[in-house]
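Z., the sequence and structure:
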Amino acid sequence: MTLAIIGAGMAGLSCASQLRKAGLSPVVFEKSRGTGGRLATRRSVYGGFDHGAQFVTARDAGFKAYLDHAAGLGRAAHWVDPASGDESWWTGTPGMSGLVKPMLEGLDVRTGQRVAQMRREGPGWVLSLETSEEQTFDTVLLAVPVVQALDLLAGHAAAFPGLESVDIAPCWTGMFVFDEALPISLSVIQRAGDIAWAARETARPQREGDAERWVVQASADWSRRYLEETPEAIRPLLLKQFQAAAGVILPEPAHADVHRWRYAKVERPLGQACLWDGALKLGLAGDWCLAARVEAAFLSGRALADAVVTASAS
């Protein structure tokens, strides 16, 4: 059986690694240059910015075991909440994308290859890449945000009712560097006005560089309000909101960048671990299936892999 997975975030790679353990050989397509999806790290001359998911927690025994394994490989570390002392936070090392690196071993992951369309042809699926190349597979699994999945599914979306009910909020994220340490006692600020999160990057464990750099994430409502603004317009607006949340006068940053996540945080999930249609040999997985947690993406990917393995054995 030839098998393609679209998306190399936590859900896609969790699915792929589980399939490989079962003796299958999935090909993973990822439109970005790197892996991890929203477990993302932006590099700069000042050091890294974890500008996507900020930390992960583990409730499921399987995910806990995976994080322990990643920690043993130097790819994960505990991050104690500096405000509450909560020890349940985990962060990737040396950046959040480190959390998926242990799953890459032995996988055929093709980064920088965007699947523009897919169509049913005979008993299989033809994937049309943005480069105009086409490849055919028996089975296709989508591990992308639900809106992107709907675009790819096109006329086959009717096989998976309820996808339109899923809501995912956007998020404008700022990355700021200052010439000296800001007079802010907390290293993490949460839910302050229009700022959902702000964190001093050097407070994270095992981070390189000592520049005073902050990741600032706007609330869902604020991000929706300014969703179509340009980065140039967003930078000063987000910096102003950060200043209000921090309660100090901020100096002009030495570096300022922003990133718009159109699909950042699940607000209304599907309520199923994954979706699988054995007749079409088509499946879907993602955090949006279960909950707004990285753990949910991991569990959804594994659930889809299990469904495929069960189907192939029958």
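The longest strand covers residues 255-268. The CA atoms of residues 123 and 138 lie 7 Å apart.

Let me know what you think.
H.
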